[in-house]
């Protein structure tokens, strides 16, 4: 008898599908990257998911974020995400924290006892704390590097933080340096080999958020989800 995971089961097998249903995956950050990763993890059949984000859906999120629509603008991203994921799989056990990952909130994550953590946050201090804590606690982690100002989704790939040298990603450059200072020489990441596009600054003060488009951040998120699922079904 067919069920909603029949096509997944046909690809990876019954035992692996059941394994995903027992798995515990945390997604930190629910923007363009994290939102796509969270939905892919849910649709893959992972049965226990933690969502963590402190942000609100903004009108400028609609161009690239799966949980952002005209109906969810103004909602907490965690709430918008939880509602959508629950509609996809009502049996999924969701743990939701409307807060930002940092040193004083990290126990909310580790109390969940994740099999894998997906990092889709963009604050260096928090990313470094997460990497250090995951290594200390022997928790699997994959991190997203920069996805803004890119227009070619085919340039995203999965690799080690050391592989990002020369890719033009400012976030990756800082992470390589700071992780090395903390004794972390290897860390799984998703990054782009495309050099960031030069964008026009319209602000009178010359300040701006990174440019982005509908098909780049989500592709990075799907790469993160793929990495996690492939690991979980091979344990």
TrEMBL record:
InterPro entries: ThiF/MoeB/HesA (IPR045886), ThiF_NAD_FAD-bd (IPR000594), Ubiquitin-activating_enz (IPR035985). Transmembrane segments: none annotated. Coiled coil: none annotated. Gene3D superfamilies: NAD(P)-binding Rossmann-like Domain. Residues 8-233 form the THIF-type NAD/FAD binding fold domain. It comes from Clostridium facile. This is tRNA threonylcarbamoyladenosine dehydratase.
């Amino acid at each position: 008898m067919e069920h909603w995971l029949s096509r997944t089961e046909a690809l990876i097998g019954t035992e692996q599908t059941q394994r995903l249903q027992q798995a515990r995956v945390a997604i930190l950050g629910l923007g363009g990257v994290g939102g796509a990763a969270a939905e892919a993890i849910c649709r893959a059949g992972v049965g226990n998911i933690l969502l963590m984000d402190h942000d609100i859906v903004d009108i400028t999120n609609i161009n690239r974020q799966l949980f952002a629509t005209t109906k969810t603008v103004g909602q907490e991203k965690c709430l918008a995400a939880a509602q959508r994921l629950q509609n996809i799989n009502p049996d999924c056990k969701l743990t939701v924290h409307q807060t930002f990952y940092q040193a004083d909130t990290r126990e909310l994550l580790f109390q969940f006892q994740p099999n894998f953590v997906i990092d889709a946050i963009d604050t260096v201090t928090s990313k470094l704390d997460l990497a250090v804590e995951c290594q200390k606690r022997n928790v699997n982690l994959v991190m997203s590097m920069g996805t803004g100002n890119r227009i070619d989704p085919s340039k995203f790939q999965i690799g080690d933080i050391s592989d990002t040298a020369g890719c033009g990603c400012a976030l990756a450059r800082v992470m390589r340096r700071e992780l090395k200072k903390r004794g972390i020489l290897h860390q799984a990441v998703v990054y782009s080999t495309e050099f960031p596009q030069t964008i026009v600054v319209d602000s009178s003060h010359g300040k701006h958020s990174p440019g982005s488009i509908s098909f780049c951040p989500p592709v990075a998120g799907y790469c993160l989800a793929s990495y996690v699922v492939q690991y979980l079904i091979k344990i």
